[in-house]
Amino acid sequence: MKMIWEFFKGTLVLVFRGSKAYYAWVFSLLVLMAVGVFAYAHQLQAGLIVTAMRDQVSWGFYISNFTFLVGVAAAAVLLVIPAYVYHWKPIKEIAVLGEMLAVSAMVMCLLFVTVDIGRPERFWHLIPKIGILNFPQSLLAWDVVVLNTYLVLNLMIAVFILYNLYHRREPNKSFTTPLILFSIPAAISIHTVTAFLYNGLGARPFWNASILAPRFLASAFCSGPAFMIMLFQVIRKYTKTDIKDEAIFKVAELIAYSMFLNLFLLGAEVFKEYYSDTIHLAPMQYLFQGLHGHTSLVPYIWTAMLFNVTAFVLFLVPKTRENYVTLNIGCILIFIGVYIEKGMGLVIPGLAPDVLGEIYDYSPTGIEFLVSMGIWATGLFVYTMLLRVAIPILNGDFHVGEDGVTPVIADERFIVRRQGLVSRTPEAEA
Amino acid sequence: MSNRRWSYFFLLARIAAFFLPDAAALAGHQAEEPKTRKEEGAALQFPVPPPPFTPGIFPCSECHKEIKPNPKRRVLKDEHTNIVLNHAQGQRWCLDCHDAANRDKLRLVSGEKIDFSESYRLCGQCHGDKFRDWKVGVHGKRSGEWNGKKEYLLCAHCHNPHDPRYKPIQPLPPPVRPETIR
Amino acid sequence: MSDKETRERKIFRLSRRKALKGLAAGVGALALPGKDASASFWEAFFQKNFRELGKDDLRKVLARMEKEYGAQYGRAVKVKATPPIEGVQYGYALDLSRCIGCRRCVYGCVRENNQSRDPQIHWIRVLQMNKEKGVYLEEAEQYYNPAKVPEPGYFYMPVQCHMCKSPPCTKVCPVQATWTEKDGLVVVDYNWCIGCRYCMAACPYGARHFNWKKPGLPAAELNPDTHILGNRPRPVGVVEKCTFCIQRTRENPGRYPACVEACPVGARKFGNLLDPESEIRYIIENKRVFIFKEDLNTQPKFFYFYAT
User: Fold this and answer.
1) Domain containing C61: what range?
2) Which homologous superfamily is A7-403 in?
3) Of the candidates A1, A2, A10, the residue with the CA atom closest to the CA atom of residue A399
4) Alpha helices in A200-323 (DSSP H)
5) Smallest CA–CA separation between C16 and chain A, in Å?
6) Does residue A318 have a cis peptide bond before it, meaning omega lies within 30 degrees of 0?
7) How large is the average pLDDT for residues A267-289?
8) Are A349 and A206 in contact (CB under 8 A)?
9) Which sequence spans correspond to the domains of chain A?
10) Which residue, among C161, C165, C167, has the nearest Cα to C202 in the 3D structure?
11) Rounded mean pLDDT of A173-199?
12) What pTM, to 2 d.p., does this model score?
């Protein structure tokens, strides 16, 4: 017990120490979070009327962000599968970072749901026994279960591995392996359940397509890893952690395959709607062409299409994939492209035209932007804090002392611009 | 042992169920009696508000007792000029419905004289389908209690008997558009 | 709530209170100004789902609401919890060949059911549709405003809750804040709804409406005869919907819903589907009946028909 307490105290010391850049980064996140909190307080006072959501389009920017981030969280599995199932070494080193990204994304997801509901103080109605969780009837109840399970699971795996590495011992395989194996279906399930949440509504033809869950997964395996690739470069540039080129290029290759699947499935959906030309075509037209003079989504979706296709080509050709300039362009394109396509591009056409054919052009208000920004900042803050502890542990700069109790902290600065080679064998292996 | 017996029993039950519904339906079809709704006619009262007379016009006999009825079909030139018959006008005129002898009564084809408060019987002579629907509360407005006392309206409450097409009315304001709800 | 009453509460309620009060205080304090943090606020906060309320609980809840609304609107408000009548399944039918699109029903409903005037909430939406196109939602118009209706070439289709036998909205609610009553009415517990709006996404008829803001209802326009599952004043942040005027129709004898009463052309018909003598049964058995979005298998108890 004392050891855990000392470890915890050590992490607290760690997060309060760092270079100027680290402080600046954390401080700016805190400012954005504070702005978000104020915006949210305003929303609580006035009601959701301060958003642009109305009865016609009853979900908007918050739920779009939620949907996108579930994908990012699910994508952690992409790094876990090769790392643990195939014992593919370079990725194994960074899998724990992926799990922590999943944790941060999950935190953001839960926050986005919280800010979207009308009576957040009644959250306890969702807790079985105390309240009533409509399980297994409601897909939202399923989502509550799987999202929280996934959050706890990833947190447990990451903390357990890091705690063991901190004690300079190999994590107990008989404990980690089942959990990690379980996290794979769990990752798929969070995104599948989130897809089913939309998918199961007969009233919304745009969502009521069986291809939706596969599309969700395919796009998740693009956006999450794209974010990871950029993050890995930042991490190895500004901290002492090493991530091999090989690992990054492998992830990029996987993105190319996922993007192909994503585009293929989208194409299948577009073909089905346009060729059959039933009354269910309307949302698709609203998204891609505009309908009855309402064209607000059209420029966004075509931007997304352009970005996704370009990124697909960049990641498919080995030459551009292994060039850091084009690689990063591809990552940014994919991240934005999927953010549009799987965010607002998925949520809004499900609701407009609405069930009575009315088209309300939804576009988020300033409050929605500020609250969302605050949540993104919170997510990044959580991830920064997790990294602040994890990276010194992985580097061997934060470990238990000779007495087996007192922590030793060797990394005082954290975010530092590094010189020389970017690829090196990490010392934390032993 | 007993398990097997039960499953055998269920099997039998299912086979029986497979044949029986059809048989039952057939029997039911043959045995079905003609539908008995609450009997029509005088037995059933239709509570209606007073007929919608133009103020001061009823009783008609106030004026008509002085006037000798003129049974000749013609366009009225001196009185009731505001009434423009737009109701199968080529086929009938005033005294087909208004009783010539007693102007406070309406007159059915059979010669029976009825009160204005029973005018639905007059209308029902031609509009049998509407009359049928009206009696069960399907044509026209019915208010009151869904499981208790009901109020009917006379045909004339909604349809001007001389010009029966329902007249357009001003709609109440449209809903506020979502864009302008703040 | 007095101390004595608190002691009388069931043990598991106490543990619920203990477990949540700390957390609730945090969130509650954020959500509400300090002056509202009265005993009545906490009682409302810990109120159980309507279907779990015991008889005594319910009586207290009704009394608390009457007191609360009385203070809020400065006049006596009756909150009933009239239960379903045995052997009744409410059914509704609307004559598309009669409706003239005058929206009398819309505003009759608003007055009867205490909908928010500002921001505006309408439980009934009237669609104007081209006779040549038929029921074609893509060209349906809700905002028509000519001098006179009906306009030549158009027909009108009011849409409200269809009281589905297989309701997609209740199925998706994560907390069972909405359900079908024994008499077929789909209702919402405004004190249990968390405001996630999943039901609004699920409803194929646009029948569910959200209180985006604290409802604006002038005291003078309040209908004081209310039902706890129907037209009582609603809080901000919850979903509401048509209840076939539960506060009227559950009485015995009970008046027709306000929209039936308001309709000048008698296009709206209401009754007990289990009563073979009812007008609703006559319509189903004798008229051409049309079920809106029949392919979705929601099995509405709201029917459109053509009397002619």
Assistant:
1) 3-77
2) Formate dehydrogenase/DMSO reductase domain (1.20.1630.10)
3) A10
4) 212-238, 245-276, 282-288, 298-316, 318-321
5) 7
6) no
7) 95
8) yes
9) 7-403
10) C167
11) 89
12) 0.87
